[in-house]
Amino acid sequence: MPDNPQTAIAPWFRLSDHRLLSLEGRDAVAFAQAQTMNDVAALEDGRWQWNGWLTAKGRVIVLFGLVRIADDTVWLVVPDADADALADRLRRFVFRSKVALAVRDDLAIAGRLRASDLASGNHWAGDPATAIELDLSGDRTGRSLRIGPAAAAADDPAALAAWRREDLAHGWPRLDAAQSEQWTPQQLSLERLQAFSVKKGCYPGQEIVARTHFLGQAKRALALVHADASLVAGGPLVGADGGDAGTVVSVAGELALAVVSGAPGAAAAGNDGSPAAGGASWRYGTLLGGLAR
Questions:
Q1: Count of CB atoms within 10 A of residue 232's CB?
Q2: Which pTM value belongs to this model?
Q3: What is the assigned CATH class of domain 10-179?
């Protein structure tokens, strides 16, 4: 019998759809502060945050977890997106900054459907020279993320799918290439996860984000959807009257995130499954909390 039964029940598995992008050099933090949508300068060493990179028009190019390793090292945990292409695009803005960007395929990102034994909240734990852990637990499920040697975890498709469902259930959008540059942070309700700042200095898209925040002009928001049949990211969410209820952003089996007009409520209770209503039965759910960092 294992010494730790919980560990045997919830082993580490490879998050094969995540990669690590490293920013290193004396200007690493300043570069991240100038380019990303959250306040990196206010983040202490040993902590991490949700973050992202925007277009000049305030549309989300990519979302990631940003880990502040030290004054001269920042790691971006990038799901779904092409990390090499992201690094190339960011390098265009380096200019004279003393920072080097590198995709670290020597380090693998692993997950576990159990709360971390070491990390909590936005404090990461461990040694970057060997491995570190982040706590991604939410209101429903304990989860840990580990960054360490590339061969340290096995593939587990079922666990990987469960991880994605937990992301969506807690309101963390998983954006494929077709959904890049389509949505503002407010339309994705990223304030729930404390994933952007309206108080720090300039960054790409900051003016749009701040104007939307202070003038209260966000007319669309993120909603959790339960569907009887798989929906398609980028496709319309068809209402019971056959009308357009919103746009699907991310899908994980029976769960989806959609950007809808206003807040979901009784007036938009879902699709009744009839052919005239689009054929796929769905209903709104409640986004879980606890994932803000």
A1: 11
A2: 0.92
A3: alpha beta
